[in-house]
Structure formats: C-alpha cells, structure tokens
Specification:
The complex is a heterodimer of chains A (258) and B (421). With 258 residues, chain A is of the alpha/beta class. Chain A has helices at 56-63, 86-96, 112-122, 124-132, 137-147, 164-176, 194-210, 234-237, 239-245, 250-257; strands at residues 15-27, 30-41, 45-49, 71-76, 79-80, 97-100, 182-186, 214-219, 230-233. A five-stranded parallel β-sheet of chain A has the order 6-7-8-3-9, with helices on both faces. A four-stranded antiparallel β-sheet of chain A has the order 2-1-4-5. In chain A, α3 (112-122) crosses α4, α3 (112-122) crosses α5 and α3 (112-122) packs parallel to α6 (164-176). The longest helix of chain A has 17 residues, at 194-210. With 421 residues, chain B is α+β, with helices and mostly antiparallel strands. Chain B is 53% helix and 17% strand. In chain B, strands 1, 3, 4, 7, 8, 9, 10, 11, 12, 16 and 17 form an eleven-stranded mixed β-sheet that branches. Chain B has a two-stranded antiparallel sheet with strand order 2-15. In chain B, β3 (96-108) and β4 form a beta hairpin. Chain B starts with a helix and ends in a 6-residue tail after the last helix. The chains are: A alpha/beta (258), B alpha+beta (421). Chain A binds chain B through residues 57, 60-61, 64, 66-67, 86-87, 90-91, 93-95, 99, 101-102, 104-110, 114, 118-119, 121-123, 174, 258, and chain B through 3, 6-7, 10-11, 13-14, 320-321, 324-334, 416-420. Chain B: The chain crosses the membrane at residues 291-315, 336-364, 384-403. Chain B: Keywords: Cell membrane, Membrane, Transmembrane, Transmembrane helix.
C-alpha cells in the first residue's frame, strides 16, 4: 500500500522501502528526481507507471544502490542506503534485491541453470538462505523453474534456445533465487504479447507470494495496472518530473536519463 | 574471486574462435621464444663440449680461433705446419702427459681425412670427458687402415672392409686422387655429435705413404709412382704435422707451457687453451643468437598485443554482459577481476600450449637433427631461465590486461545496471 500520509510511524514495521526528501540530479540545478516521501510495504506488489523520462530508471538505480542521491534518505529493510559506501551498497543489492529487465536478461554463454544460480556466486546471504532451507542452488533453481511453468529439461539448455517468454521466466527465477526481499522488474513484459504478459505476471505474483517478496514493477503499459495491488504514478510524486515535463525541455531531460 | 574464474572461462568459451586464435598466437610465439632459447643453449652446450680433456691445442703461429677452426672443427686449412721435430720435443717435455698429432689436408667424398696415431683413441675426449668409442671393428693398425666417424659411415653407407680412395685437398670434388693406394675401413666410431663424426682417421704413416713421390701437392713429374708394397718398405715418419693436442700432468702448468710454446725458438708456434678459444669462437656466433632471441621476444610482444586488441574489442559488445553481472550482484571489483582473469587465462593457456608444442616439435625433430647434424638434442625439462621467461610473458599479459580491466571497471561504474548496447 502506498502511504503518502503523515502517519507512517504506525506502519514502520510493515515498511520495506522508504524514501524521504529524496533529490537526485545528474547535473547541479537540474533535478531529475524529487520525491518528498514514499513508503512501500512488505509483500506488496507495486505498479510504478510513468512516461519515458519521468525518472523511472533513475529511481530504480537509486533503489538498487547504483546511484547515490544528493539529498534525502533511501531506507531499505531498515538500512539507509545513503549511509553505505559504494561497495557496501553493491553488497546490499546482491543480498536483498533481485532484478528483472526488459530483455536480454541472461548471459548467453551460461546454461539456464547457471544463469539462475548466478546471484548465489556473488552473494553469501543468498547461499546461506538456501542452505537454511536445507536445499542447494540447483534444487532451488529446479523448483523455481517448475513454479514458473517451465519444463525441467530447460535447465540444461543454452539460453539461446529459449523463447523470449521463457527467457523472462528464467530471469524471474534468477531474481528470486536465494530469497531476496525485494524484486525490481523494469518493463519485463514489454517484449511479450498481451496473453504472455498476463500469464507471466500471474506466475511472477505466485512466485513472489511463495517467497514473500515485495515486487516493484515498472512499466508504461496501463493495461497491466489493474492486475496489481497498488499503483504509483511517478509523474504525480516526482516533483522534478512534473515540473520539467510541463516545460519545453522534455527532450533534453530524456537524453540525460537515457 | 573464485566466481570470476569460472565466469571468465565460460565467457571465453562463448567467444571460442577469437579466444582460440589469441591463444594460438601466444602459443606460437612462446614456442618460438623457447625454441630459440633451447636451440641456443643446446648448440652452445654441444659447441663448447666439442673438445674436452685437452689442455692445449698447438699449431703453427696463427690466431687462436683460426687454430681451433682447422684443428678441432676441421674447417678451412692451416697456413703452416709444425715440424715433426718440434712435436717430438713436445712429446718429451717433462710437463706433458700425452700428445695427439693431427695431420690434415686430404679428404674423401667431402669428409676430412685426419692422420693421427693410437693416442687419438686413448686420449681424445669430448662432451663431459667422454672418450671415443669404437662401435664396430677396431682401431687402425696397418698403414692403409682407416677408422671412420659415425656420420661418414651413415651418409656414405660404408661398413667394415670397405675400400676407400682418398683425394688430395679438402674439396668435395678433387681431381687429385690417391687411387693407387686405397684404404680399408677397419673401424667405425660411435656417434659423438662433434666433428669427429665427419672425419676419416688414418695413421700418420698412411698419410706419408700416399704422398710418396709427390712434390708441392702434386705427383712429381717424371718420377715413377711408388707402389703400395714399395711404400711399406720405406720409413714413413712424417716431416710435418698440422697441429697437436696436448694433455698435461698438472693443470697448474698450463700457462707456463703455453708461454714456453709461444716463445719456442726453433719455429713460431701457437698454443691455445681450447676452452677459452671455444668461448671466443662462440662469442662470434652469439651475435646471430642474440638477434634471434630479440626477434622472438618481439614475436611474443606481438602475440600479447593481439590479445590486448581482442579483449579491448570485445569490451563494447560485452557491456550488456557487465550490466547483467552487476544486476545479479557483481561489484566493479568483480568486473575488474573478470577481465584480469581473462587475460591471465589466455596467456596461461597460450604458454601451456606453446610449451606442449615445443616438446612435440622437439620429439619430432630430435631424430632428424641427430641424423643430419649429429647433435643429440636433449629433451630436458624447462630450465629456471625458461620458467622465468614464461613467468615474464604471463606477467606482461597481466600488466596489459590492466588496460581493458580498468576500462571495463570504469564502464561498469558508469553504466551500472543500465544495459547500453
């Protein structure tokens, strides 16, 4: 549930992502993102919409700890990212966040299994969580693949033999392995047709529920909006975007955000 | 850093054609470098061990290198001979333990004929103080007996009891033949890898006998030919010899005797220390040797630059790969080490392949080399120096790898998880 209210204290225990007085600019005096307050609760599925250039990619980079804001706080799982060093943020990302991108998510030279278990190579915590379940990365991958409706023999296949839809499900499995608390999906369905989108989403929801993960789903496709618990319009909460996009320099801004 | 090793390996496998070509370029350059190094050390070893156990080589007044060339390597000709009396004087010298007379000037089918005596087979040593060994037959006893080197037997297909005719002069084709006095092969020496293999050994008396009735290098005009039997009747003591090898009772006396011989009153003589002269001779050849080594070092540099080029070229098309890795938790340090691992892997595999290639080549060429050149190429493990060369190559590759690694590191910092293609 999106909270723009002042009563956030009462919801503290449920909040997984909190932004406060966040400001980010690539260049001084040209803010790209300016969010006063944003709270996302645990286990919610949040649809973040907004046209290109409204700061979606920047927001995701900030949440992932790739970028550091000039002002404000980003609190994930009670940890203020702005207090961490670059490599600590990298570390934090690898332990707690799984990413799914638009397309070409997978490394072509690894098998499906190796792609799915890739995060375990970089994160001790993900390995540990799997161990705690008395499982192995391989077994986890097998289970995720099954939950996502892929045939088991897909694991040994090279990535290049998979359809786009299958690749995106593999990407979802990879994001979820080792149980990160937050899944960030950046337009993962844009290369799929409508039916495939819907089935991908329902599978994604199912697997996020099973892993008790919070899902942030970024898209500019309004047809998907109804499938989510909550919707966040970045245009509405990003003061910088509404200010800039109303002006003449949209194109300029678009380039900068890339 | 373990996750990056497997990743680098799998990433390289994905680009296996470029990777293979890079590895091959490095491998060939390593083979060349180590091969040149092996050939250099082997030829040097073989060269410096042409003669051993001999304390002084004595000839008419000449340069040390010149003397070694004609007396030991049997190349070129002596300008002057030593008087037999001087040789006898030397034989009786109190410091001298043994002497070997050497008389050169004739040939057979391009192989040099050496007149000497029994002391040659007892005192001549090569390599690590190895004496000559008779493989077949015996040493010469009769005036017209000949003992041939291993190469002579092999190339001319001679066996024992073969009758051979010596030719006057050292050329392969000689119009002056001692056809009236043929020799019989009574012994064949075991191969030594030295010029002994290419020599036909006869007694000093034999050399004298075939030149009976000759004057100034041609059969004397108007005089009747001397027959074999007539020759046997005569005293066949040589008047001169070409050179002599001397062994001393005590090495300490070497310089004393050398000075004494160099200052010999009756005729101008030269005495040289074979080790010193061989080293001097080798230093003349080492210019080519160093040139070869420098060229192969450049070839290695070319191979490594090729590797650098291929890694740098791959960086742009691999930005997506880097972004994906970043999104699954790889830190910029991982990206850096991934690139370094890649350079290290390419260089290490290249070196391994190069070394294997070298030993394969040595196995193939060993019989050919010993067949044609009489040099026994020893297939030995890599020396410390050769390991050092390999270490230097891999380190250079890693240093070069810093360039793409640093660029990938900067790229991944700038790109983050954003996939830019």
């Amino acid at each position: 549930m999106l909270r723009l209210s002042k009563r956030k204290q009462t919801m503290m225990s449920d909040a997984i992502i909190q932004l406060q007085a966040l400001q980010f600019a690539w260049k001084p005096n040209q803010p790209v993102l300016h969010i006063d307050e944003l709270t996302i609760n645990k286990r919610h599925k949040m649809f973040i919409k907004g046209p290109s250039g409204c700061g979606k990619t920047t927001l995701l980079a900030l949440l992932g700890g790739i970028l550091k804001p000039q002002q404000g706080q980003i609190t994930l799982l009670g940890q203020d990212l702005t207090q961490l060093t670059d490599s600590q943020r990298d570390h934090f990302r690898s332990e707690h966040i799984g990413f799914i991108f638009q397309m070409f998510n997978l490394l072509p030279y690894l098998s499906v299994l190796d792609n799915i278990t890739l995060p375990c190579r970089f994160s001790q915590k993900r390995q540990q969580r799997i161990k705690d379940k008395q499982s192995t990365p391989q077994a986890e991958a097998k289970q995720l693949v099954a939950t996502l409706g892929l045939p088991e023999n897909v694991l040994s296949k090279p990535v290049t033999e998979l359809s786009i839809g299958q690749q995106q499900r593999v990407a979802a499995a990879r994001a979820l392995i080792g149980g990160p608390e937050i899944i960030i999906a950046d337009e993962p369905t844009s290369a799929l047709d409508y039916d495939a989108r819907k089935s991908f989403l329902s599978l994604l929801f199912e697997v996020c529920d099973a892993h008790q993960a919070t899902l942030l789903f970024v898209s500019h496709d309004p047809t998907l909006e109804t499938l989510f618990d909550n919707t966040l319009s970045l245009m509405d909460i990003n003061k910088a975007a509404s200010h800039h996009l109303s002006g003449q320099d949209n194109i300029h801004l678009l380039k900068e955000v890339g | 850093m373990m996750p990056t090793l497997k990743l680098a390996w799998q990433s390289l496998l994905n680009r296996r054609i470029t990777a293979l070509l890079t590895v091959l370029a490095i491998a060939i350059s390593v083979t060349l470098l180590l091969g040149v190094e092996k050939i250099r050390t082997e030829t040097k070893r073989s060269f410096l061990s042409t003669l051993s156990g001999t304390d002084l080589v004595i000839g008419a007044r000449t340069g040390p290198v010149q003397l070694m060339l004609y007396s030991v390597f049997r190349m070129g000709n002596a300008t002057n001979n030593i008087d037999w009396k001087s040789y006898q004087h030397l034989q009786q010298h109190p410091l001298v333990k043994w002497t070997i007379p050497l008389s050169l000037g004739d040939s057979h089918q391009g192989f040099r004929v050496l007149g000497t005596d029994q002391s040659y087979f007892t005192h001549y040593q090569y390599g690590d103080h190895q004496p000559l060994k008779i493989k077949q037959g015996k040493v010469f006893t009769d005036i017209f007996d000949a003992v041939i080197g291993a190469d002579v037997a092999k190339k001319l297909g001679y066996s024992l009891d073969e009758s051979i005719v010596l030719a006057h002069g050292a050329g392969k084709t000689s119009f002056m033949k001692h056809s009236d006095k043929p020799f019989t092969v009574v012994g064949i020496l075991a191969p030594t890898g030295t010029p002994v293999d290419q020599t036909i050994h006869v007694s000093l008396a034999g050399i004298e006998a075939i030149h009976l009735g000759w004057e100034n290098g041609v059969p004397a005009m108007g005089k009747p030919r001397v027959s074999t039997n007539q020759a046997r009747q005569q005293t066949l003591e040589p008047k001169t010899i070409t050179a002599a090898l001397v062994g001393l009772k005590s090495k300490v006396a070497t310089f004393r005797l050398q000075r004494e011989i160099n200052e010999y009153k009756d005729e101008p003589l030269t005495a040289v220390l074979p080790g010193v002269a061989l080293a001097e001779l080798w230093s003349l050849l080492s210019v080519a040797e160093h040139a070869l080594l420098i060229i192969s070092a450049f070839v290695v540099a070319t191979g490594l630059i090729g590797m650098l080029t291929s890694i740098l070229m791959s960086l742009n098309e691999r930005r997506r790969e880097m972004a994906i890795l970043r999104s699954v938790g790889a830190r910029p340090v991982h990206i850096f080490s991934l690139m370094m691992t890649e350079a290290g892997l390419l260089a290490t595999i290249g070196c391994l392949l190069g070394v294997s290639l070298l030993y394969l080549l040595m196995l193939i060429t060993q019989p050919i080399i010993s067949n044609y050149y009489g040099v026994a190429l020893a297939i030995t493990p890599l020396t410390h120096y050769e390991w050092l060369l390999i270490l230097v190559i891999i380190s250079s590759a890693l240093i070069m790898g810093l360039i793409p690694a640093w660029r990938a590191y900067k790229n991944s910092l700038a790109d983050g998880m954003t996939i830019r293609v």
